[in-house]
Amino acid sequence: MEIKQAQNQASWDNWLKVNSQNTPFSQSFEWGEILLSEGEEIERLTVVEGENVAEFMKL
Hints:
3 strands, about 35% helix, 2 helices, single chain
């Protein structure tokens, strides 16, 4: 398993659309940008294990 910082907005939001029944705005890249603009600290992480990729935002 490998954990990396996620940087790509299109990849992040596409993963949410494909892997969620309801795409939660609170997990979108855009919401993270709003939090950053308000001075919040966030982490966007990509977890890769073999062929499987799981992305999530940690606030």
